[in-house]
């Protein structure tokens, strides 16, 4: 009874065609090889795509760097130009004062001898007022000095002198007016400082 199933299994194995078995194994091997080749092609394509993306990113970085450098150069040129010509408005106003000064000189030259002095003084006084107005327009003002307490931040002492009415340490005389622009000293006032009445 036990030997009959074994004989049936053996008979079924004997019925399998050896050629069919070889064919099946060959197809399986071919499929494995095809999958392997397909995998290799996919990796190659991916590497090609990644290389392309890296090259494109590198180009964008180089382009951005070039644009940034060009922007810095333009900004530097614009800043230099602004600094170079920052005084143009002041120069334009001063040239107008110069024109009026020349007109005053011409008028004094062509006038009679008696009128020459008076006309010249009046003309120059008007030009001086115009110049003071121009300076004030550009936030340039004269530094108070005469009768003020000597301040080395605004005054430059060129000498000292006794004065019966001016206390020691006060400015007795202004040799050259000083000016400041906003809160910055353009040039200090050159002054003579009093040493007092000299009674001590």
Write the layout of secondary structure elements.
Elements: H1 3-15, H2 18-84, H3 88-110, H4 113-137, E1 140-142, E2 155-161, E3 171-176, E4 179-181, E5 184-187, E6 189-194
Helix pairs in contact: 3-4
Organism: Rhodopirellula europaea 6C
Subcellular location: Cytoplasm
Protein name: Protein GrpE
User: Biggest β-sheet, characterized?
Assistant: 3 strands, antiparallel
Q: H/E element string?
A: HHHHEEEEEE
Tell me the count of domains.
3
CATH T-level topology of the largest domain: Nucleotide Exchange Factor Grpe, Chain A, domain 2
InterPro entries: GrpE, GrpE_CC, GrpE_head
Keywords: Chaperone, Cytoplasm, Stress response
Pfam family, one: GrpE
GO molecular function: adenyl-nucleotide exchange factor activity; protein homodimerization activity; protein-folding chaperone binding; unfolded protein binding
